[in-house]
Amino acid sequence: MRRLPIFVTLLVTALLATACGGGRPESLMDKDEVVVAIRSDVPLISFRGPHGYDGFNIDVAKYLVGRLKKRIRWLEIKAGDQLTVLTDGRADMVFAHMSITPERKEKIDFAGPYHVDFQDIAVRPADRDAIRNVRDLEGRKICWVRGTNIAQRIVEERRVKAVIVPAGDYNECLDMIKDGRIDAISTNSQILAGLLTQPGVDLELVGATFNEQRTSIGIRKGDIDGCEQLNRAITEMYQDGTARKLLEKWFGGSGLDLSVVAVPQFEGCS
Amino acid sequence: MTALQAPPAPTPAPAARVSTPRRVRTLAGATLLAMALLLGAVVTGAGFTGAGLRTIGHDAGPQVLATIGLHRHLSQMDALVAESLLLGKEYGPQQQAGLTAYDQLRKEVAHELLKAYELALDNVTEQRTVEALVEGLGRYERLAAQARLLNAQSGHTTGGPPDNVVEVYRKATDLMHRELLPQAYNLTLETGTIVRRAHDAERSATALARASVVVAGLLALGCLLSLQVYLTRRFRRVFAPALVAATVLTVAGLAAGVTLLNRQTESLNEAKRHGFDQVLTLTRARALSMNMLGDQSRYLLDKGRKDTYEHTFLDKARTVVAVKSTSLPDYQAKLNDAFGGMLGGVAGPDRQRLFATYQAFQQADARMRTMKKDAAIKFWDGELTQAFESYDKALEELVRRHESVFEAAIDRGDGALGALWRLVPAGLVAAALLVLAGIWPRLKEYR
């Protein structure tokens, strides 16, 4: 009889451990301070300004994380690190203008998209009338930044026979279009708009809307709770007018068409 | 039992005379307390799973299922507008039928929006989305009516409407695709999270309740055994039949409690995984597919945006039935039944049937894109739409089947819950009475 309480205590402990220990995967919602990975070299979108990091992505990240009532610790990353910072647990979220692809979805999950835009084309003002949409790139030289898939999407997906000229980064593309080695640069319209603000650049956006780009937040695989909360915060960002305000703040004078602010259709959290 | 004709009661020492009845009473009291705990645990567990069952099976679950048509119906409305503009005046009767179908869809959309609002009663964000949809739908109606009017005035034959019509329609379809459809889609995702949360909460609560049932049950059995061992030693009786019966009933109550709680959890799992989740995924796939049909008509209607609509078609095709590919012709050539994507989870003969209809639809699409405009419009309106309809029907049948899986699982859960309420409390109360009956004669010996 005297051993009964001990036996019962052990039993209760064991059972409670099995009942509660099923454990869900680690979520960014469990933390007070989240690590947000960003780039620091993309004009207008995410760059190092006089007062710290600045740009469209930075403002969006601040708004969304603020909605989740958490603090931000920024982590600067390079172009190739968007997936690995999540898979080895160094960051909770990645705001790197990433679009959702099936290959990426095998390694990480996505919240959002938080912005939907299109691929656009930048040309010299003199070519403005000759190049009006993606078909007009037939036979012309376009820039391909190694590691991106944007040029392939024109040649393979759209089957437009453009001539691909490789480059290390977008600054090299800008040099090449200036001295006539290439005719056009094509990528996500927001990134193009950013390039056009660089000093000494005299290019125009064509306003071609092809290849929808769905810019999303990378999160750790299995973080369903974090994904759902971020999606709700994104919905609120569009409802309360912050999305339009931020687009106008950063891209208002860039030549992007902001007449319609498209509501992003979420990828879903599962 | 012979045990009752045991030797006469021992004559214990005066000190023991005092402590024996107290000991018996203490043990019996502990037993009754443990039984009450067991009953409490079973009732609490039943309460938790009952709440989960109500939310998923009778409350949020069916309501979500009632609103998931929203996205598809909106897509269908836009596709009908495009169709009515695309077909020339020689299609008069068909255009009239299209208008009737459009009005019917609008009714369904209104109904679904009301349901969605009801579902979002304690979620301000969702309510705002429904409000935005109602407001946006009004704007869409205005633009669609304007496009129709301009189209009727132009009196064009097949081959597509004049530019001014296309321009107004562009505004309408942009509004639909860049605001209304994403909002409707997100709304369904959001309401789906209500069900996911209810299910998660129910699962952990039931696991806890099950653990408590086991602990309380073992405690009750332990007390019962100690009581019997004590009585056997003290009074030299091997069995007290009432106590044996009480033990059997407690074991039965414990087993029934655990089994029924398990069965309920299993039913809920089945309803969630094989019913609800499947219906949600398949209906989303159906909505996207409906939108693909619309992308085809927009591809034919708006030559300035041919590339955009071909790309959105491909994008959706890859979401629904994913095959690694670089372009639309490449996708259509590489289609094979080892596909992934939204429909990737469909298995068995269903997969074969579904894939065959989907492939026929994609093959017809490939043919349409090689044709001249007039011939392409005729082909789209005839053979291609038929191919789509048989694919859509295969999907619809699959949705129906999973809906009945959902309902059957919820019914099983309800049945288990009913049995839990009826059997276990009655059994435990009987066991408690038997304990009292078992110790009563022994206590009387000390009067």
Description of the structure:
The complex is a heterodimer of chains A (270) and B (447). Chain A is an alpha/beta fold. Chain A folds into 2 domains: 28-115 and 215-251, Periplasmic binding protein-like II (D-Maltodextrin-Binding Protein, domain 2, 3-Layer(aba) Sandwich), CATH 3.40.190; 118-211, D-Maltodextrin-Binding Protein, domain 2 (3-Layer(aba) Sandwich). Chain A has helices spanning 4-20, 56-67, 84-87, 102-105, 150-157, 170-178, 189-196, 224-239, 242-251; strands spanning 33-38, 41-42, 46-49, 52-54, 71-76, 93-99, 109-123, 141-145, 163-167, 184-188, 204-205, 210-219. In chain A, the strands form 3 sheets. In chain A, strands 1, 5, 6, 7, 10, 11 and 12 form a 7-stranded mixed sheet that branches. A 3-stranded antiparallel sheet of chain A has the order 2-3-4. The model of chain A is unreliable at 17-22 (pLDDT under 50). Chain B is built from 10 helices and no strands. In chain B, helix 2 (69-86) packs antiparallel against helix 3 (92-119), helix 2 runs antiparallel to helix 5 (163-235) and helix 5 (163-235) runs antiparallel to helix 6 (241-301). Mean pLDDT of chain B is 87; it is low at 1-15. Chain B is 85% helix and 0% strand. Chain B has helices at residues 14-67, 69-86, 92-119, 124-154, 163-235, 241-301, 306-320, 328-334, 348-370, 373-444. The chains are: A alpha/beta (270), B mainly alpha (447). Chains A and B meet through helix 1, helix 5, strand 12 and helix 8 of A and helix 4, helix 5, helix 7 and helix 8 of B.
What characteristics describe this protein?
heterodimer, A: 270 residues, alpha/beta, D-Maltodextrin-Binding Protein, domain 2, 2 domains, seven-stranded mixed β-sheet, globular, B: 447 residues, mainly alpha, disordered N terminus
